[in-house]
Amino acid sequence: AGGTMGCIRVDKITEYLCEPLRKCLKDEDPYVRKTAAVCVAKLHDINAPLVEDQGFLDQLRDLLSDSNPMVVANAVAALSEMNEASSSGQPLTEMSGPTINKLLTALNECTEWGQVFILDSLSNYAPKDEREAQSICERVTPRLAHANAAVVLSAVKVLMKFMEMMSSDSDFVTTLTKKLAPPLVTLLSSEPEVQYVALRNINLIVQKRPDILKHEMKVFFVKYNDPIYVKLEKLDIMIRLASQANIAQVLAELKEYATEVDVDFVRKAVRAIGRCAIKVEQSAERCVSTLLDLIQTKVNYVVQEAIVVIKDIFRKYPNKYESIISTLCENLDTLDEPEARASMIWIIGEYAERIDNADELLESFLEGFHDENTQVQLQLLTAIVKLFLKRPTETQELVQQVLSLATQDS
C-alpha cells in the first residue's frame, strides 16, 4: 500500500496520508519502512511545510540508525533528495559522527543504488579532523573494487574530497592515491558517459600526482569512435603524463590525430604538440619537426594552428629553431585567422634580422590594416617598431606609415 500511497498527487489527500505514513515509518517490516522513507520525499515534494510540521523529518532522521541497511539507504536517499529541493540551502539533517558510523555500516550491506546515495551524502560531510577523514576513507576504499561504475565513481568522489584534508605527502595519501588509479582506468572500457566522468577524475588525480599513471599512457590514446568530449579529455591527460620516457609514443599519436576529420579535435591535437615541446624540453626538436611535417600537408587550419604553436616554442626557446622560418614564410598568403596572422607577424618582427625581406612581408599586411583584428594590428605595430630599431634607415617610411594608420580612425 505504501507504494500506491506515494504515487497519489493531490493536496487534499496528502493530509489524510499523514497518519498511515507515520505508522508505516515505524512498521516492523523493513520493506514497509524503506518504502515509507521514499514516500516522505514524495510528500515533501508536494507539500514541504506539512512534512516538517508533522514531524516526518525527525522520523526519517531516526531511520538513519535503523537496523536494516536498505532502510538506512532509503532514508539517506530521501533526505538528500529533499535537501536538493529545499530552498533554504540549509541541510535538513546535520550528520554527526554516530550517524556517519551507521551509514558506513549500512554501506557494506545495501544495494548498489543504496551505496551510491550513502556515498554521495558522505561526500557532503565535513570530518572534524584528519583522523576521522582517514577512518572514513579506510571504510570507503573497498567500494573501489565494486562492479558498478556509479558506486566506484561515488567512492572516488568521497576519497578525493577527504584526501584534500590530509597532508599530501603522508603515507596514507600516497597509498590511497595508488589504489584510486586502477579502478578508474578499468572504467575507461565502459560507455562514453562513464568514461568521461572517470577521465575528469583521473585528470584531477594526475594534476596532483602525475607519477601514479605514468606507465598507463596507452589507455589514454584516443579511439577513432570516441565522442569528442572523451577525446579532448584524453588529450589533456596525455599531455599531463608526457615525459622524456614516453614522448616519442605521444608525438606519434598526436601526429596521427592531426589528420582526423574533426576540425576542433585536430586543432587541439596540434596545440598539444606545442604543449609537449614546452613541457619536455628534450622533445622540443622532435615536436618542431612534427609540426613542420604537418605544415607540409598544406591543410589550411592545420598550418595555422601549427604557426601559432611554433610562435610559443620560439618564445620558450629563443634562437634555436630559426632555420625553419623560411618554411613558415612560404605559407604567409594562406593565413586568414587572426591568431595565426598575429603569430606570423610576431615571428617576422622578432627575427627580422634573419629575414631578408622582412620589411616587404610586414608591409604586405599594412594594405588592409583597418580590416584586421585588433590583436593583429597591435602585433604589426610592435613588429614594425622592432624592425625599425634593427634597421632604422631602410624602415623609417614603414614606421611612419603604420603609426599614421594606427592613429587615424578607421
What does this structure look like?
The protein is an all-alpha fold. It folds into four domains: 1-125; 126-216; 220-336; 337-409, no CATH class. It has helices spanning 2-5, 11-25, 30-46, 48-53, 56-63, 69-85, 97-107, 112-123, 130-140, 149-163, 171-186, 192-208, 228-241, 247-257, 263-279, 284-296, 300-316, 325-330, 338-350, 358-366, 374-390, 392-407.
Would you spell out the secondary-structure blueprint of this structure?
Elements: H1 2-5, H2 11-25, H3 30-46, H4 48-53, H5 56-63, H6 69-85, H7 97-107, H8 112-123, H9 130-140, H10 149-163, H11 171-186, H12 192-208, H13 228-241, H14 247-257, H15 263-279, H16 284-296, H17 300-316, H18 325-330, H19 338-350, H20 358-366, H21 374-390, H22 392-407
Helix pairs in contact: 2-3, 3-6, 5-6, 6-7, 6-8, 7-8, 8-10, 9-10, 10-11, 10-12, 11-12, 12-13, 13-15, 14-15, 15-16, 15-17, 16-17, 17-19, 19-21, 20-21, 21-22
